[in-house]
Each structure stands twice: as C-alpha cells, then as structure tokens.
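> call design_seq(struct)
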C-alpha cells in the first residue's frame, strides 16, 4: 500500500508538471504575423508579391506550412512555401483578361492546437491584350518654402483612366490625401513643415477589361522643404491709456530682412493718419485727448527681404475701441427728441427719458403741458417702469442703479445714479481693449466676433452662486467689473460685460430683464436675437467648466421652448425681437 501511494503521488506530480509546462508554453507562444503587398504591372502583365513573415517561435513546419497560392477559376496555378523573413515572388506567366486571387494561408497556434488561418487575400484582374496602359506624366511646381505644388497629365490613348489620387507622407505618417480631378491643374499642398522630407504617392486607377474591372499602379515622388526666411516682426505691449495719452512699449526684430525702416502711425477709424513717429526708443506716446471714436496704432516697415523690396508693410495693429456711450443704433420703439419743449402727450414720455438717459444725464426736468398731469407718469403703470426698461437698452455705463423723482402735476425733476463711476469705466475700457485685441482679428465676420465674445466670457467667468443666494456677499457681481477683475458674477454682470464688448465692436446689442434674470439682445443678419451667456455657462460643482450654445443667437420662440419662467420679459420697449 505504501508503494502504491508513492506511485500515485509521483503520477500526480508528473501530470501537474506537464500541465504547467503546457500552460506556460501556450502563454509564451508568439504567433505568426504576415504582412503582404502586391503590385500589378499592366504593361508587362505581371504581378509582384512581397510578404514579410515573422515566426519567432518556429511554428512553420513541414506539417504546418505557410503557403502562397495563386488561384484561377478555383484552380491553384502556383503554390509557394513562405519562410520566416522577407519573401518576394514574380508571377509573369499570367493570362490576359483573367481574374486571379492571391491567398496566403497557414496556421495559428491556439490552446495547444494548430488552426488553419488565411493571413492575406487579394483579387486582381489582368489587362486585356492590346490595351495600352495609361502613362502618368508628373510636373513639380515651385510655390513656396512651406507650400508644394504639382500637376499631372495622363497619356491615355484608350481612355482607360478611371481615377487619380495622391497621398502625402511625412516619414510614415499620412499628412494629406486627395483626388485629382483636373488634369494639368496645379495641386497645392499648404502647411508643410520646414526642412522635412516628404513622400508623394500618386495612384492611377484604370480599366483592364470589357467588364470595367480596374487595377491601380502608383508612382513615388519625393521632395524636401526648405527653411523659411523670417520677415521682420513688431509687437506692442504694456499699453496704458487714460484717454488723454496712450503709451506703450514697441519691440521690433529685423530677422532676415535688411535695410529695415520702421514708423508708428496713429490712425482714426477712417484710416486717416493723426500722428506718426519714427521710433528711436522703445517707449512711444501719442496724444489722444481729441479723439472721440475708435483708433488704431499701426507699426509699419519698409525693407528688403528674400529677394524682394517691401514698402509700407503693416507689421502690427493695436486697436483701441473707444466706447462712445450714446447708443449708435436705432431702437425701433424709441426716438431722440427736443427736450426743451414740454410734453404734449403721455406717449412722448419714453422718448424724453430715452434722450436723457442715453446721453448719461444724471439730473433733468420734464415739463408737462396744462392738459397733462405729470403725476400720472410717476405713479401709474405702465409709465412708472419706463426709466428702468429704458436703462436696459442704453449703454451699460449709462444704465441706472438708482432714480429719484420730485414732481408736481406740471413737472418732474429726476435725478439718477449711474451704474459705473468714471474710474470704473476707465478700468473696464482698458481691460476690454486688451481682451478684444487678443480675441478679435480683422478677418472675422460680425458673427465670428459675437461668438468670440460669447466664448471668452464663458471661458473666463464663473457664476457666483453665493452672491445669488445671499446678496450680502456680493461685491462686483452685478457689473462688468466682476468677471474682468474677480472672475465671477451673476447674470447682470454677464449681460453687462457682453453688452460692453459687443458695443465696443460696433455690434448692436442691449440687455433684457425679467423679474429674476438678465441676458442680451444682439442684432445680426437683419434681426434681433437672444443670447444668454449666463445660461450658456452652467454651474458645474466638480470638473471643468462647460461652454454651451443653447442660448446663442436664438429667436424668442426658441428661447421660450427652452425656458419661460426666467425669460419672460416686458415688451413695452422691446416688442421687435425675432
């Protein structure tokens, strides 16, 4: 019994060892990989096949071969054994106008078992005898150091060409591709890297038989881009502007240019030159005290560069958007009127208010004719709400934070407190100018500019939930100062900054208020649309902020599909929204 027990233990040990060996072997086996390419030459009617075989664990054996088979009409016409490494074969005894199939098959090793496997298959069609294969003619075109151009034509007497296309490779990375639809036309490829070798593969797909089967041949071209010479550059920084003088630092760099002559010009919005200096120091100052509109500072240079002479080339432009606070566009329901005359009817009251409030007048008197009672305008709806409704459509700098009335039945004395001090306006204007010079380019359309403002505000603001829940914690949250200098605001701050930036760009906009919320109206494509930068910037407790376009340039119907509770507003003044 003892001997039998020893034998049984030994047998179990052997089985365990064999099982472990088999498991480890199966886990360690690296299977065969096969990569094949083939190229058919219609002119010679021959096919070249190149297969790279990797068999690190010698799985290819006599009993388990790896074979390339050339099939025709379900009959194997060639059977070739493949070996580890590179294998090249030429099939030059092909029939014309015939369908062939190339199959590379062998075995994989899975779970201690060889299983048959097809590594590569391809069907190709040989050309009809007598057909003339198209000949591709290539011409390289010089365009620029980092731009490449070429043109192709085809000598194709039998009109067999079906398509021509190209692929561009940087090293082995495909960087561009496209079809060539116009023979002889220059194909231009932009955005190349300097000092880089590129491979251009041209493919011609052509018809080989009466059944319109096609095959493809390719042509390889190479080119190397050059190092691009650099033109002179200029930048303006450290700008200070107190509306009397503007000062800044000018930095210039000649780079590869020669005989460089710089000058700096101050131009108004009509491109009239107001002042010009030839810089002999890095600090430049201009007197801007008499300028009431927008203006630009242009750094201009004349120089020789890359074999050419350039004259009065603008290298850098810094734009100053002078917010002219009186509204520069028409409000359909309001008009500017002569305020020296008394009111002759109650409907004129809104126009009197608009004329004064839009100009930023903080103390004024309105007189009523004997047939009117001025107390009605202060004490009764809808007139009593008009000052704050009008406050929303004027520039935010002239919007009202407080209003006081002293009145009789004959006249009303009105005093107002504006939402911003002059110091706050100057600080906002300076910051807004800096931002707009960063996010706005000359090539932008008005809608591009609107989106740039929308995105900037959302990406640089955080809704102040604490202020919303407890007004005692609010600082600058109800004004444009909040986002610009604190990075947070409530809806009024979002709407104010949106309005200020859009008006600075001469884009028509104003604010709309409901009982609990404020957003913007923006004029684009001949219509007034809604834009709510607050609600496009939802509160996210954890993770990165979110930029949405749910409330971006939408109609009133679209707005009220999304929300009515917070976006229902008085239409006494604003009755023309799309």
């Amino acid at each position: 019994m003892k001997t039998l027990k020893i034998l049984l233990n030994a047998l179990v040990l052997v089985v365990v060892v064999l099982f472990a060996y088999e498991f480890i072997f199966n886990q360690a086996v690296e299977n065969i990989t096969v990569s094949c390419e083939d190229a058919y030459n219609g002119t010679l009617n021959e096919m070249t096949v190149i297969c790279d075989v990797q068999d690190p664990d010698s799985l290819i054996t006599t009993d388990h071969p790896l074979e390339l088979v050339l099939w025709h009409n379900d009959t194997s016409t060639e059977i070739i054994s493949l070996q580890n490494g590179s294998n090249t074969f030429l099939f030059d005894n092909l029939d014309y106008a015939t369908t062939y199939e190339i199959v590379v098959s062998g075995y994989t090793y899975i779970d201690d078992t060889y299983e048959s496997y097809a590594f590569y298959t391809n069907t190709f069609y040989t050309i009809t005898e007598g057909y003339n294969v198209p000949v591709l003619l290539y011409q390289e075109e010089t365009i620029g150091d980092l731009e490449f151009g070429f043109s192709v034509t085809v000598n194709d007497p039998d009109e067999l060409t079906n398509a021509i296309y190209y692929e561009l490779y940087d090293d082995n990375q495909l960087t561009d591709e496209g079809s060539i639809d116009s023979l002889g036309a220059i194909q231009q490829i932009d955005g190349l890297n300097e000092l880089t070798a590129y491979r251009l593969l041209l493919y011609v797909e052509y018809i080989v038989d009466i059944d319109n089967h096609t095959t493809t041949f390719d042509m390889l071209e190479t080119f190397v881009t050059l190092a691009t010479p650099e033109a002179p550059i200029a930048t303006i920084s450290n700008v200070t502007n107190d509306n009397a003088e503007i000062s800044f630092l000018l930095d210039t760099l000649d780079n590869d240019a020669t005989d460089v002559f710089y000058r700096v010009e101050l131009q108004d919005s009509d491109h009239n030159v107001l002042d010009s200096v030839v810089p002999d120091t890095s600090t430049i100052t201009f007197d801007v005290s008499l300028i009431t509109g927008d203006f630009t500072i242009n750094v201009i240079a004349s120089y020789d560069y890359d074999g050419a002479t350039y004259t009065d080339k603008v290298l850098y432009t810094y734009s100053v958007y002078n917010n002219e606070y009186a509204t520069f566009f028409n409000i359909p329901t309001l008009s500017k009127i002569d305020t020296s005359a008394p009111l002759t009817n109650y409907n004129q009251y809104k126009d009197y208010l608009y004329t004064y409030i839009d100009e930023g007048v903080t103390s004024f008197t309105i007189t009523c004719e004997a047939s009117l009672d001025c107390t009605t305008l202060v004490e009764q709806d809808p007139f009593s709400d008009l000052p704050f409704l009008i406050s929303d459509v004027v520039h935010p700098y002239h919007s009202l934070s407080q209003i006081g009335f002293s009145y009789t039945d004959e006249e009303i004395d009105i005093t107002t407190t504006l939402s911003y001090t002059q110091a706050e306006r100057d600080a906002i204007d300076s910051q807004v100018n800096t931002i707009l010079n960063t996010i706005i380019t000359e090539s932008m359309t008005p809608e591009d500019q609107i989106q740039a403002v929308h995105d900037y505000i959302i990406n640089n603001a955080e809704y102040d939930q604490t202020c919303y829940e407890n007004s005692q914690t609010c600082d600058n949250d109800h004004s444009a100062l909040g986002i610009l200098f604190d990075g947070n605001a409530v809806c009024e701050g979002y709407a104010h900054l949106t309005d200020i930036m859009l008006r600075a760009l001469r884009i028509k906009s104003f604010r709309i208020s409901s009982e609990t919320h404020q957003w913007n109206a923006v004029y684009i494509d001949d219509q007034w649309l809604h834009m709510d930068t607050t609600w496009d910037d939802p509160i996210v407790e954890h993770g990165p902020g979110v930029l949405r376009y749910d409330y971006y340039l939408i109609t009133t119907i679209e707005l009220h599909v999304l929300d009515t509770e917070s976006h229902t507003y008085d239409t006494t003044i604003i009755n023309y929204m799309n």
